[in-house]
Write a structure and sequence with these properties.
This protein is an alpha/beta fold and 189 residues long. The protein is built from six helices and twelve strands. It starts with a helix and ends with a strand.
């Protein structure tokens, strides 16, 4: 991660978690960021460190608004980083989400969270539920995918992998949870 962030002159974007833990309040979250050495490699933006704002949910059945960090405007940095890859299209595979409920500062909410469901519905993204009592898809994550990507399983035999990367997230689960990303060149061109 260090090489990519520094090559792009990027910012590490974080949010306080809605579930209980070491990152659910800004001061605790800053300590985790420091302990992991993130401040040593790049600027870090905790999106809700200075408060939240309400974004209206258009035609929401259960929600009339979604709470987001006031630094949401800074997410442009993620989009610019993706844009700098000069990719023709960004594809991502099928999305899988756990089930159940998670505790957050505002009480218990269902998984997938209402924000994730609303974004998925708005952008016609299918979320496949798996038998796993945890949250796998965050609102920020699906928001970025919805903004820049196309959900499609590629015929990898028609592609050459130019670069690849993998992320494992920060949560300790008893099963592998990761995101793989590739820069591909289409062999037909």
């Amino acid at each position: 991660m260090k090489e990519l962030v520094q090559k792009l002159g990027g910012t590490i974007v974080e949010c306080n978690t809605t579930y209980n833990g070491k990152r659910d309040f800004t001061e605790d979250h800053k300590k985790v960021i420091k302990d992991h050495g993130f401040y040593d490699i790049a600027k870090v933006d905790i999106m809700d460190s200075e408060g939240e704002e309400k974004l209206p949910v258009k035609n929401g059945k259960h929600l009339k608004y979604n709470l987001v960090g006031t630094h949401l405007k800074n997410i442009v940095s993620a989009i610019c980083g993706i844009e700098s890859l000069n990719a023709e299209k960004i594809y991502f595979s099928s999305l899988y989400e756990g089930k159940g409920k998670i505790m957050c500062r505002r009480g218990e909410i269902p998984v997938p969270t209402p924000a994730v469901v609303n974004i998925a519905n708005e952008y016609n993204l299918t979320i496949n539920e798996i038998n796993f009592d945890k949250e796998l898809i965050t609102p920020t994550g699906i928001g970025i995918l919805a903004s820049v990507g196309v959900c499609k399983d590629l015929d990898i035999a028609q592609e050459t992998i130019i670069k690849s990367g993998i992320g494992f997230g920060k949560r300790a689960y008893n099963t592998p949870c990761n995101l793989k990303a590739y820069i591909l060149k289409n062999n037909k061109k």
